[in-house]
Amino acid sequence: MSKPHPKPVIAIIDWAQAPLSEPQSLIEREVIGDAAEVQYHLCHSDADFNAEVCAAQALIVWHNTPVTATGIARLSDCRAIIRNGVGFDSVDVQAARARGIAVCNVPDYGTEEVADHAIALALAQCRQLFPLDAEAKQLRWTIRVGPNLRRLRGLTFGIVGLGRIGTATALRAKALGFRVCFYDPYLANGADKAIGVERVGTLEELLRASDVLSVHCPLNAETRHLIAARELALLKPSAFIVNTARGGIIAKEPLLAALRAGALAGAGLDVVENEPLQTAAEAATPNLIVTCHAAFCSVESKIEMRRNSARIARTAVLGERLYNVVN
Ligand code: NAI
């Protein structure tokens, strides 16, 4: 009698330093059913991939675990690496492609959360929530109408990258009374007409016009340090900058220096270059709000993300046609 064929394996790779999922992987098991054996592994990086991970047919990888060319070279039978989230800058997509491994992302789970979060960071700055909260908790009650406390209506909200999240943010900002502009060199003409916002032709134009600048493009070779010292200097000193995309898009040192010098009114960052913040001095930067790369999180979005990534992994092990392939 021939030996029964072993079940394919789907390995879920969670970040050992701060796990985002749960070892039982109940949501994934429900979606994957009998199609594969589901394993849960805690790793700091792909150097921690053990023999079971290296032999798996599909990996679901949470966002802080880098998957490099070295790790990819150790995968012996992998059909797909599924990045549990939208950004896939943590995976060496070229190395995966060279080995015939598809990299898929999960773009359809947290668009609303990230847009809500960008708006929350913008509002916290424009309405000075944190300084007012600190005042009240000192058991004082003085309202200092400093120059950073602004009326939203009429301020210009500038968006870098009018994709899914950029569009959702634009619609929210518009409803709040901002004048909304965007810069996105890859969108077809008419994107501005579709949602009733203004398009500008260059990043420089957007920087000069914005009272709030909100970043929503992906991180890649072109956008790393898209906003560095020269670009920050083009912003008005009264401007606020919001980043819910990826830390590496804004150079951290010149940004913190601009805040310390008062050359910028404030920053609301969900993501920072080289996460997390590294020193107490960085954390003490004036007019800085930082939120631990949590923009995508909500009870609802995490369930949706886990279901969607499990569906793609199931497709991969069944040999069906993959979707959301980014390489
Ligand atoms: P998307 O792919 O729908 O939109 C990205 C837009 O950026 C596209 O329209 C593209 O044309 C534009 N773009 C590309 N290069 C550009 C450049 N050089 N200048 C200006 N625009 C440029 O992606 P989506 O779903 O809107 O997500 C955007 C990013 O948000 C993701 O790549 C990810 O890094 C980040 N993200 C962050 C999360 C968080 O928790 N903080 C959660 C989810 C996504």
Compact summary:
The chain is an alpha/beta fold and 327 residues long. It has helices at residues 26-32, 51-54, 69-73, 93-98, 111-126, 129-137, 164-175, 191-195, 203-209, 229-234, 252-261, 280-283, 299-317; strands spanning 9-15, 37-43, 58-61, 80-83, 102-104, 156-160, 179-183, 198-199, 212-215, 240-243, 266-269, 288-290. The protein has a seven-stranded parallel β-sheet, with helices on both faces.
List the helices and strands and how they pair.
Elements: E1 9-15, H1 26-32, E2 37-43, H2 51-54, E3 58-61, H3 69-73, E4 80-83, H4 93-98, E5 102-104, H5 111-126, H6 129-137, E6 156-160, H7 164-175, E7 179-183, H8 191-195, E8 198-199, H9 203-209, E9 212-215, H10 229-234, E10 240-243, H11 252-261, E11 266-269, H12 280-283, E12 288-290, H13 299-317
Parallel strand pairs: 1-2, 1-3, 3-4, 4-5, 6-7, 6-9, 7-8, 9-10, 10-11, 11-12
Helix pairs in contact: 1-13, 5-7
Bound molecules: 1,4-dihydronicotinamide adenine dinucleotide.
Residues 85-87, 107, 110, 114, 160-166, 183-187, 216-219, 222-223, 226, 244-246, 270-271, 293, 295-296 line the site of 1,4-dihydronicotinamide adenine dinucleotide.
